[in-house]
Amino acid sequence: MLNNNNSVKPLPTEKAKKEKKKLFHVEKRFNMALWQSILIRFGFIIFAVFMGLLVLTMAYGINPFLSFGNLFKGTFGDLLSGNFDRLWEFLRDSALLLGVGLALIPAFKMKFWNLGGNGQIAIGALVCLIMMVELGGNMPDIAVVLISVVASVAAGAIWAAIPSIFKAFFDTNESLFTLMMNYIATGLVSVWIYWRFPGNSNVVPTQSNGRLPVLFNDKLLIIILIAALFVGILFYLKFSKHGYELSVVGESVKTAKYVGINSKKVIIRTLIMSGALCGFVGFLIGSGVDYTITAETTHRGMGFTAIMAVWLGKFNPIVTIFTAMFITFITKGMGQVQMANSRYITDASATSIVMGLIYLFVIASEFFIEYKIMYNKNGKETDVLEIIGGFFKKVFGPVGRFFKKVFVPVGRFFAKVFVAIGRFFKKLFRIKDKAKEKPAKESIDDSDEENQVSLDGAKQIAEPETSPSKKKATSGKKKSQKGSK
Q1: Greatest CA separation found in the chain?
Q2: Buried b or exposed e, range 17-45, using 16+ CB within 10 angstroms
Q3: Element spanning 382, H or E
Q4: Per the CB 3.0–4.6 Å rule, which of 19, 110, 136, 360 could disulfide with 210?
């Protein structure tokens, strides 16, 4: 007999274990309304600007409200005084950034990550300055401009074709390849400047020949050219066969091969076009903006900045217009903030930190549009954005109700006043109209009476008194009618 202590215990039955849900988890978001995505982006932008100005206030003690005003002053200037120079400059720089974005969109839609925009712009600007230096003064300016634009576009196309060929035939890493090409382009600019102007401190003198023609001002023609480029790229992507092919290659190279699309040809062709457009932007910078060239600032970092503009625009040319304008607004606005507080902010590092913080929040807004963070409390899951929205509703709800109580009655009062004034003037004009109509009616009535009299006289003349025979006939008819009754 087995001892109770040594007895074999039965195996425990398997119980349904309740999985403990995490406090936070991420889910894919589907079918978000357009107004909600716009509201999320706008909210993150406002919060980012507020946080950036708060950082400057904590670091340097500057007035955040004045800094917020300087953001707009740096972009638009003093419009009330009739000075539109900064506004035109803002539109021109936004157009140039949009031009680089339009060059990158076809490559990105094909999943070719072209990081060589800076190098392609620099090569285009270098070739443009070479034409201006060597041909300027020896040929008419319009001829120099035409030669410069063709040479810059060709140089940018060749510079982008090199990594595209290696990608198509040897499947190299296009991101690393195009990135390294940037350094080579910068080195070529430095070598040419040192060779052509050896005793000029590595600086090219500002060229006065071969400049882009001026249309109303020196910025309008650049904006028009980029607008025409925008229309062309939009048509190319939406309605052309090449645009369809690059989108198929971007989805799947195997699918493109199955339907008979030569993916190698599409890759090379698309990158040539992308490099050509970057070279065209380099021509605009050299011939229409700077009229000189430096190794460090020729491309203005637009090759990398345009990547963010395109990514925020979801590779959509129309949306990229607004993202390019927003990035230009932040860049110019923070430059004005630094200039207005030059006593405290001695370099651009602080403003660069603020700009980076703003860009970080803007990129973070895309995460909340694509995904939602669910908060689990007592088995009930709630979207974090709904919690944040409820918090702001509690905070700003009383303020909104206060303004509603104040302004709604005031608005109703003014509405009643304007309605009463309108009715008064309406009655006044009616009285005047009636006073004008009365003499006309009297004259019409008099003429009607005269016409009636004349008609009666005419009837008497045309119809004389009836004869006695007719009177007897009528009297006989009347008697017969009485007898029948």
Answers
A1: 160
A2: eeeeeeeeeeeebeeeeeeebeebbebbb
A3: strand 380-383
A4: 136
